[in-house]
Amino acid sequence: xxxxxxxxxxxxxxxxxxxxxxxxxxxxxxxxxxxxxxxxxxxxxxxxxxxxxxxxxxxxxxxxxxxxxxxxxxxxxxxxxxxxxxxxxxxxxxxxxxxxxxxxxxxxxxxxxxxxxxxxxxxxxxxxxxxxxxxxxxxxxxxxxxxxxxxxxxxxxxxxxxxxxxxxxxxxxxxxxxxxxxxxxxxxxxxxxxxxxxxxxxxxxxxxxxxxxxxxxxxxxxxxxxxxxxxxxxxxxxxxxxxxxxxxxxxxxxxxxxxxxxxxxxxxxxxxxxxxxxxxxxxxxxxxxxxxxxxxxxxxxxxxxxxxxxxxxxxxxxxxxxxxxxxxxx
Length: 330
Ligand SMILES: *[C@@H]1O[C@H](CO)[C@@H](O)[C@H](O)[C@H]1NC(C)=O
Description:
disordered N terminus, three-stranded mixed β-sheet, alpha/beta, 12 helices, 11 strands, Purple Acid Phosphatase, chain A, domain 2
């Protein structure tokens, strides 16, 4: 597999909604689409929030210039109660360890030895670590290493299952490792299908459900991450993110504990979801489900922009970040 293609696969797919409604240049100086007002009880008076998304270009060995890391600085510059969140999200790594190293180092997530640098608060990987390149297992192990190092330094690694992780666990391609082995265990324990990352300290830890009954104007100061996309017509969006993540959890459990396990595919026929998968679990893995949806990247700008505020409203977020669909025009 030529590195150059993998490199694009890593770098290109990440930015989606940042780019759907705004050009990348504009995204570099992103204004919130409506002012981030503050809850009356919030200790931060007169705070100005800003989301800074510098465009990230990288030169690889092969001379390809790519974009696609989301680096968001969310801060409150009021001197009184200063806080800052540095969030780096990276998409489809697809078995390419050398370029993953480069990208994470460039984004300030790791130092030159590949260890957690302490320079960011959150590192988010939106799924599809597996397939295409040769370094899949090394990548999972490295991300777990970073998860431990981050935790020791007050940082957080958020990991997501992409459609390729699911395809492998459905087809039992690498059987033991992804079922009862350490990769399967870390998927079950450390990976989710989506996440909601509250950005203001008062809003709770990552994956705090959005509570629509909280009439705080800060309540949407959060970002969502998912591999494919949160489609406007997907019926299991809420409560967000626990509804989707509970479905992911039960489906993964059923897949990892099939008894007897289906014969590996190929050469045997594709086994599909387990016979006891519920309709909601089928929707989770459906074309409009969070793992496969491509509408935010492929629909017309008019269509996507018309639908986006409704999804943000229901999920209690201001930005959606996803991988999955390459955009070679970025
Ligand atoms: C989750 O990640 C941590 C930190 O890397 C690791 O020590 C732990 O074993 C993982 N959990 C599971 C269930 O594998």
